[in-house]
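Bench log, entry 3. Co-assembly request; chain sequences pasted below exactly as received.
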Amino acid sequence: TQLLEQSPQFLSIQEGENLTVYCNSSSVFSSLQWYRQEPGEGPVLLVTVVTGGEVKKLKRLTFQFGDARKDSSLHITAAQPGDTGLYLCAGEVRGQNFVFGPGTRLSVLP
Amino acid sequence: EAGVVQSPRYKIIEKKQPVAFWCNPISGHNTLYWYRQNLGQGPELLIRYENEEAVDDSQLPKDRFSAERLKGVDSTLKIQPAELGDSAVYLCASSLRFTSSYEQYFGPGTRLTVT
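Structure output for the full assembly:
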């Protein structure tokens, strides 16, 4: 059983478009992290959200943690080819262990 | 500062053969994780170390997988014997224990192909 679901599974957009990807679960998490992974590399942490309803911004990326701490979204404004990659969310369980979702594979075409 | 180092980067073996992966975490990071990432999936935790102690190995298939972290620094993950289904990327990550964000730093991974 997948603890975390991510949607969409794949997304291909043109440079300059906006997009939102989602991370959903029926479980409550102490914290939730978003990572980006490029081919042949390990995931790189983008943000950690801890408080329900929390919104964090990282340049053109906006992250939101759901009020009930069961879901999260990542919004990218004016996507660029450099944003291409696999976006993974990970929810914290049992203190310092994280369960990863299957990821959203984003392709931004120039 | 050097990141998490893993070797080898790629490994191709025949089924039933043994294989070992090595990880050197970021200096000072006492928590070390081994993950397995299947194609098209997110990483799945295999084992977590606090210093030299394995504090969570509940997802490690102990019939064929073993891990060690001698002296609480480098770690080795071994599979013996390997099966076709073990083909995956094996990721190592490390973090500082006493930080609120539990920020994990991942290595580039070892891509294992079992034929």
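The interface with chain B takes residues 4, 31, 33, 40-45, 48, 50, 88, 90, 92, 94, 96-103 of chain A (CB under 8 Å). The mean pLDDT of chain A is 93.
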